[in-house]
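User: For my dataset I need records formatted as: sequence, then structure tokens, nothing else. Please produce one.
Assistant:
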Amino acid sequence: MNELVVNEQRCPQNHPCPAVRVCPVGALKQDGFDAPTVDNDACIKCGKCVSFCPMRALQLL
């Protein structure tokens, strides 16, 4: 089964994550400007956040 992962080395962690807003089920959360965290139980693996992340820090593996 696929899992959404955050590559923290690619995530600049200095701004609100734009991909959080495009998740249709709220599976991405961000605390301050930290790298987003993923609730893989809620994630539907639609790939919207992966396509939307300008830094390619989100991956479905």
